[in-house]
RNA sequence: GUGGCUAUAGCUCAGUUGGUUAGAGCGCCGGAUUGUGGUUCCGGAGGCCGGGGGUUCGAGUCCCCUUAGCCACCCCA
C-alpha cells in the first residue's frame, strides 16, 4: 500500500542526526571524559531532561527564559527542558546533599536544549560534559578543576592548547575601588568582547552602555594590557588591586593555582593568566577557566567553568560553594573536524571476517564467537558474496584486519589473517584452537 | 529575535542576457576468464533544480512567501 503523499523526512532547525562515522567519534570522546573524570574521583549522576518550569526560570535573565523550551504536560504542569546541567545540579544538590554529604564530586554527560538561533557549532540540541566539586571552599578543588581540563584535552589528543585562568575577585576588587560594583554585569559583558572587537571599541562601549567614565574604563582595561610571564602579570595585578582586600584575595588565589599547576607538571605554555576573561554573567565568584585551541582560537572556548559561592541558593538554605567546568562536546567535535583529527572509520569492529564458503557458515560463526570471547570486535559478512566485494566493503568501512578462510583453509585447519592497511596476509594454524590467531590479531592491532 | 548570503545527483559544485531531452568530478552499484580490497579501464543507477505561489508563449534562471544552512548582531548557565 502506497500512501498518496509521503511525509518529507526532515529534522527541526538546530537538531541533527548523527551518522556512524561521527557518532563513533562522539562516543570515543565521551569515553575519554568519563575516564578522566573518574580518575579524579568524580562520580556520575543523571537528572531528568524535563524539570518543573519554576526550577529552570529565574536563575538566568530574560534571555534564558526566552531560549527555554517549555510547555504544559499532559497533567497540566508547567515544565521545561533543561538548557544546561548546572541548574539541574543545583536542584539535585538541594534535594540530595543531606544523603550524599559534602564535598560532592560529580560529573554528568547529557544533552541540553536551547531555543536559540543556530550557527556553526551552535545547535538547539547539544551535549555538555560537566564536572563539579561542591560543598568546599578549598583551593584544591580549583586546582584539580584545571588539572582535569588539562588531562582531558591531552587525552583527547590535543597538544597545543591554552587554559586561560582568571579570578573574578580581581575584577570585583577593581570595580569596588571604582565604586562601579552595581554595574558589574554590564561591564563584564563588555569586557568579554575585548578579544573580539578590540580595546578601543570595548572602551567606547563601556562608556556608552555602562555609563562609566573614560578614565574608569581605562582603569578596568588596564588589566588587559598586562603582559609578560604569569609571574610578571601577577606582580602587576597585585599593584592594581592594592587598594582592595577582595582584589588582593583574588590575586593570591590565582597565584596559588598557577604555582600548583606548575608543580603538578602542567607546562607553562598551556596556562595563561588572562585577567580580562570574564566568563558570562555574574554567576562566577572566584577562579574562572576558559580553554582555547591554539590552532583554532576563533572557535571559542571549548571547556569553560569557574568557582561559585552558592550553587543552590534558590532551592535550599544550605550554602553550597563549589567549582566546576564543562566540556562543550559539539563545539569540540566541530573543531576536531576542522583540524582533521577525525579518523575515518564507520565501523567499531577491528576484525572483518569474510563469509566465503557458504557450506561453512557454522565454522565462521564459531570462529567469530571465539574471537569475541577474547574481547575482539568482529563483523562477519552477511552474504557469501565474491571475496573481492567483501574486501572492498571491509576496506571502505575501515576495518583493520580481515580473516579469510575458505574450504582450502578449513581442510588444512588454517586461516589467513590479512592486514587491510599493508595488504599482507599471514597463514595461521587453527589446529590448536584460535589462540594463535587471537595473539597475532592483538599483535597486529598494536602496531 | 534582527539583518545579509545561500539552497541543483549521496558529496563538492557548473549551468551564458529566461529557450528544447539539466551537466562534471568524487562517491555508489556492476564488469574486466568466476579465491583477495585501496590504483587503472569499461558500463550503470541516481535529480518534483529545498517546498509553495506568481510573472511569462516558455522559469533551475525573475518576483513573493515558506523551510533549512552559513555569516554578522544579540546572547552564551
Tags for this model:
single chain; 447 residues; alpha+beta; BirA Bifunctional Protein, domain 2; Rossmann fold; 2 domains; eight-stranded mixed beta sheet; five-stranded mixed beta sheet; 16 strands; 19% strand; elongated; RNA-binding
What would you note in describing this structure?
This protein is of the alpha+beta class and 447 residues long. It folds into two domains: 20-338, 2-Layer Sandwich (BirA Bifunctional Protein, domain 2); 351-446, Rossmann fold, CATH 3.40.50. Helix content is 43%, strand content 19%. The protein is built from 17 helices and 16 strands. The chain has helices spanning 20-39, 53-56, 62-67, 86-100, 139-156, 168-177, 184-192, 194-197, 199-210, 214-225, 230-240, 245-263, 329-338, 361-373, 387-397, 407-412, 435-446; strands at 43-44, 50-52, 70-72, 78-81, 104-113, 125-134, 161-167, 271-273, 287-293, 303-308, 322-328, 351-353, 378-380, 401-404, 414-419, 425-429. An eight-stranded mixed β-sheet has the order 1-5-6-11-10-9-7-8. It has a five-stranded mixed β-sheet with strand order 13-12-14-15-16. Helix 1 (20-39) runs antiparallel to helix 5 (139-156) and helix 11 (230-240) runs antiparallel to helix 12. The protein is elongated and about 90 Å long. The model has no long low-confidence stretch (mean pLDDT 87). It binds one RNA strand of 77 nucleotides through helix 3 and helix 15.
Amino acid at each position: 500500500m502506497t500512501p498518496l503523499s509521503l511525509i518529507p523526512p526532515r529534522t527541526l532547525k538546530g537538531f541533527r542526526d548523527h551518522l556512524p562515522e561521527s557518532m563513533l567519534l562522539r562516543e570515543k570522546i565521551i569515553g575519554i571524559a568519563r575516564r578522566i573524570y573518574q580518575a579524579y574521583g568524580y562520580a556520575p549522576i543523571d537528572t531528568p531532561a524535563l524539570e518543573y518550569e519554576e526550577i529552570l526560570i529565574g536563575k538566568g535573565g530574560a534571555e534564558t527564559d526566552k531560549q527555554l523550551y517549555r510547555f504544559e504536560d499532559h497533567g497540566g504542569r508547567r515544565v521545561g527542558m533543561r538548557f544546561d546541567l548546572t541548574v539541574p545540579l543545583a536542584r539535585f544538590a538541594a534535594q540530595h546533599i543531606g544523603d550524599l554529604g559534602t564535598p560532592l564530586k560529580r560529573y554528568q554527560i547529557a544533552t541540553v536544549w536551547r531555543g536559540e538561533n543556530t550557527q556553526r557549532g551552535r545547535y538547539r540540541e547539544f551535549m555538555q560534559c560537566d564536572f563539579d566539586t561542591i560543598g568546599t571552599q578549598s583551593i584544591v578543588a580549583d586546582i584539580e578543576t584545571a588539572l582535569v581540563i588539562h588531562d582531558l584535552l591531552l587525552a583527547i589528543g590535543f597538544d597545543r592548547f591554552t587554559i586561560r585562568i582568571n579570578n573574578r575577585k580581581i575584577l570585583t576588587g577593581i570595580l569596588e575601588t571604582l565604586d562601579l560594583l552595581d554595574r558589574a554585569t554590564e561591564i563584564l559583558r563588555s569586557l568579554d568582547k575585548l578579544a573580539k572587537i578590540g580595546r578601543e571599541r570595548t572602551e567606547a562601549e563601556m562608556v556608552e552602555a555602562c555609563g562609566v567614565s573614560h578614565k574608569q574604563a581605562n582603569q578596568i582595561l588596564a588589566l588587559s594590557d598586562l603582559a609578560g610571564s604569569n609571574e610578571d602579570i601577577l606582580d602587576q595585578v597585585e599593584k592594581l588591586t592594592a587598594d582592595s582586600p577582595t582584589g588582593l584575595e583574588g590575586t593570591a588565589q590565582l597565584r596559588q593555582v598557577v604555582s600548583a599547576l606548575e608543580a603538578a607538571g602542567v607546562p607553562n605554555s598551556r596556562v595563561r593568566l588572562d585577567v580580562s576573561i570574564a566568563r558570562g554573567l555574574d554567576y562566577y565568584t572566584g577562579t574562572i577557566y576558559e580553554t582555547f585551541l591554539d590552532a583554532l582560537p576563533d572557535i571559542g572556548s571549548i571547556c569553560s567553568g569557574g568557582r561559585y559561592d552558592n550553587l543552590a541558593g534558590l532551592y535550599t538554605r544550605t550554602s553550597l560553594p563549589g567549582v566546576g567546568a564543562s566540556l562543550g562536546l559539539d563545539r569540540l567535535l566541530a573543531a576536531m573536524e576542522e583540524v582533521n583529527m577525525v579518523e575515518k572509520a564507520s565501523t567499531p569492529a577491528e576484525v572483518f571476517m569474510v563469509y566465503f564458503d557458504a557450506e561453512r557458515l557454522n565454522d565462521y560463526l564459531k570462529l567469530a564467537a571465539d574471537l569475541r570471547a577474547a574481547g575482539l570486535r568482529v563483523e562477519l559478512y552477511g552474504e557469501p558474496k565474491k571475496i573481492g566485494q567483501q574486501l572492498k566493503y571491509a576496506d571502505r568501512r575501515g576495518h583493520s584486519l580481515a580473516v579469510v578462510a575458505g574450504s582450502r583453509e578449513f581442510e588444512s585447519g588454517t586461516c589467513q589473517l590479512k592486514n587491510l592497511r599493508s595488504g599482507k596476509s599471514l597463514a595461521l594454524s587453527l589446529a590448536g584452537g584460535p589462540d594463535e590467531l587471537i595473539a597475532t590479531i592483538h599483535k597486529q592491532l598494536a602496531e
